[in-house]
Design brief:
The chain has 128 residues and is α+β, with helices and mostly antiparallel strands. It has a single domain, classed as Gyrase A, domain 2. Helices cover 27% and strands 23% of the residues. The chain has 3 helices and 7 strands, in the order βαββαββββα. Strands 2-3-1-5-4 form a 5-stranded mixed β-sheet, covered by helices on one side. Strand 2 and strand 3 form a beta hairpin. Helix 1 packs parallel to helix 3. It is globular and about 40 Å long. Bound molecules: zinc ion (ZN). The site of zinc ion has 6 residues, from loops.
Length: 128
């Protein structure tokens, strides 16, 4: 029996917004999935609609948090096809604060972001 709920996984990033673009790249690479960026979350799917192993995604998120020394501050919570990264302490990660004074806009679809790196990652979805 096919579990349709796992064809697309949503990762809720609202507590880790500033590292979202790095996280998207890392996780999608680890699980060989295609990311779709939304405002406070990203989605993972596969080209051939294969089922994404949720445990692999959760491990990849934890590995990434570990690599930036934040694993003890965040919980990775899985609920059906949504994985949430929740701040335990209320701490919000702040990075990339130097280059975000100007808004960057995607000239393909109008996507707007504060972060150049976010836009670069976003542009990749148009070239898949
Ligand atoms: Zn775009």
């Amino acid at each position: 029996m096919i579990n349709l709920f796992n064809l697309v996984l949503t990762i809720d990033c609202r507590d880790v917004e500033s590292i979202k673009s790095e996280l998207v790249v890392y996780v999608s690479d680890q699980v060989a999935a295609i990311p779709t960026l939304k405002i406070h979350e990203f989605m993972l799917s596969t080209l051939d609609d294969a089922i994404i192993d949720k445990n692999t995604v959760i491990s990849a998120i934890k590995e990434f948090l570990e690599s930036i020394g934040e694993s003890h501050n965040f919980a990775v919570i899985s609920n059906n096809d949504v994985i949430s990264i929740k701040s335990i302490s209320g701490k919000i990660i702040e990075r990339d604060s130097i280059h975000n004074s100007e808004l960057a806009t995607c000239n393909h679809c109008g996507y707007i972001t504060n972060y150049d790196v976010d836009l670069q990652n976003h542009m990749k979805i148009h070239y898949l």
